[in-house]
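Chapter review: from sequence to fold.
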Amino acid sequence: MRDPGSASYTAAIESAASRDTDPDPSEFARRMRREAERRGFPLARRRVILGDGASWIWRVASEDYPGAIQIVDLWHAKEQLWGVAKALFAHDKALVEPWADARCDDLEQGRVDGLLATLRAHAGTCEEAGKCAGYIDKNRSRMRYPEYRAQGLCVGSGVVESGCRTVVGRLKHSGMYWTVSGANAILALRSCVLSGNYEDFWAERAANPCVQAEIQT
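The token string follows.
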């Protein structure tokens, strides 16, 4: 559940890649940290990180926000199960939807042990089933969906997907060509406007002598 108008946006064409041995966080991680601090996220009584299950997301979340609740986006998890169904019943497509619906219901209702048993039973003949079982087992502590919903927590990243279309998708219309710096400038502007920070942004720049000197130069 989200308060109306509570979403804010930040976007750029930059790398999210980093290695465990890198001394500094990635550009993406630094961007997320700045926005989180601007919004007061580190001081929140209850903090939640939603991700698609990729290990690097949880590494960044654990380093920057230890103690935050980590949740795997339910729709990404369901997508994995649908992939298994399509692989299992490639020659009988009528069975795909019933099997996938049943497994997704298991996941959503918290029947993870039974779900894993079903996937592992197919792992010997279906590579996708084995991979999906590993994915769910690795992230099962982040898939307590009945518990999250009972607390009123969001379990889907739809607002993020929508944000990508709203902020970034508009740069991909037919006939558009961008340099990276030009695209990043527009992304920053759109993020500022959609986050309701447009007037504050210019007021801050006007009040900063260093920025004024840079503009004049």
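Two observations follow directly from the output. The chain has a mean pLDDT of 89. The CA atoms of residues 2 and 177 lie 35 Å apart.
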